[in-house]
Design goal:
single chain, 347 residues, alpha+beta, eight-stranded mixed beta sheet, four-stranded antiparallel beta sheet, 16 strands, 22% helix, binds N-oxalylglycine, binds nickel (II) ion, iron, Plant_2OG-oxidoreductases, Oxoglu/Fe-dep_dioxygenase_dom
């Protein structure tokens, strides 16, 4: 069956990775109400039922949504409006803050995932700027656009508020693994956390392309806001089906990244996900990637391994892992880019 291809060939997914027209929406990822965590108490007082929900969600899905999370709806509205204004600017304006080989922060429109171009534009902001060049050679200084007015203030405020939530979730997930809640905080003292603004234009061939190709997030966890369009699909562990994550107003989508999968020695899952696009509506999303410091060596935690459950991964440097991944994202390479399976031990 012929169909008119209106997009550049670089965006076209290989046959087996194209989105099916119907993605199952009969099931959905778990929804967790965080209201039992009052904003001033620490997570040690989290009720058992909440911990059990977190444990099941991280183990069975690697994804869940949270409500009553403490980030104000007004801030979400302001961020969404500012983001839309930025991406509506003319290309030459956006390119004034474009990423380059030295500095991978700011605007970019040509990212590839697994060597196929993504149908999206992004703007990357580091949560904590650093004066020195990172141990793996990354420049960690933000590029701020002149317009829209208030862009910097809005996203600085947003990053701060969402980072607070990310740390509460980090502690809650640690507790759900029977670790002391602050056990993992040490890896984030010089955190590499990144706020990313995604913009997906309507696409004339939504059945051939993806907004973001299938991938797993490398960090510890991701806190993502999406607008009401929908398009994020998660691979269900039980049967490998793609499930659409239903937009819930003012909720955040949380997913466990590769770092937690390795720390937990595969108890928790870094699930594969992707973004389908839409021929009519555009879409925005805002992931906050809670990522350890570049100098962190990631390996299964001692508390979670023993003779019966030996470490399934060799240690790797977080900084080098993301550096290698980033090179593969900026341009098309002839080889598959690096994945955590690379560090998996033969059992
Ligand atoms: C990502 C991602 C999902 C989305 O940027 O890593 O998975 O819904 N985004 O935009
Ligand atoms: Ni992702």
């Amino acid at each position: 069956m012929g169909q008119t291809v209106l997009v550049d060939q670089a965006f076209v997914q290989p046959q087996e990775h194209r989105p099916k027209t119907v993605v199952s929406d009969a099931d959905d990822i778990p929804l967790i109400d965080l209201s039992p965590l009052s904003s001033d108490s620490d997570v040690t007082s989290a009720p058992e039922t909440l911990l059990a929900q977190v444990e099941a969600a991280c183990r069975d899905w690697g994804f869940f949504q949270v409500i009553n999370h403490g980030v104000s709806p007004e801030l979400l509205r302001k961020a969404e409006a500012t983001q839309r204004e930025f991406f509506a600017l003319p290309d030459e304006e956006k390119r004034k803050v474009r990423q380059d080989e030295q500095n991978a922060l700011g605007y970019y429109e040509a990212e590839h995932t697994k060597n196929v171009r993504d149908w999206k534009e992004v703007f990357d902001i580091i949560a904590h700027e650093q004066d020195e060049i990172d141990v793996v050679g990354l420049v960690l200084k933000n590029k701020w656009p002149q317009v829209p007015l208030g862009f910097r203030e809005t996203f600085e405020e947003y990053a701060k508020s969402v980072e607070k939530l990310a740390f509460r979730l980090l502690e809650l997930i640690a507790l759900s693994l029977n670790l002391p809640p602050k056990k993992l905080n040490i890896f984030f003292e010089k955190a590499n956390s990144l706020l990313r603004l995604n913009y997906y234009r309507p696409c004339p061939n939504p059945d051939l392309v993806l907004g973001v190709g299938r991938h797993r997030d490398p960090g510890a966890l991701t806190v993502l806001y999406q607008d009401s369009t929908g398009g994020l699909d998660v691979k269900r562990q039980s049967d490998g089906e793609w499930i659409q994550v239903k937009p819930i107003s003012n909720a955040f989508i949380i997913n466990v990244g590769d770092t937690f999968q390795v720390w937990s020695n595969d108890k928790y899952t870094s699930a594969e996900h992707r973004v389908s696009v839409n021929s009519e509506k555009d879409r925005i999303s805002i992931p906050f990637f809670l990522q350890p410091a570049s100098c962190t060596n990631v390996r299964p935690l001692e508390e979670l391994t023993d003779d019966k459950n030996p470490a399934k991964y060799n240690e790797y440097s977080y900084g080098e892992f993301i550096r290698a991944r980033k090179d593969g994202n900026l341009k098309k390479l002839e080889v598959q880019n690096i994945q955590i399976d690379h560090f998996k031990r033969a059992q």
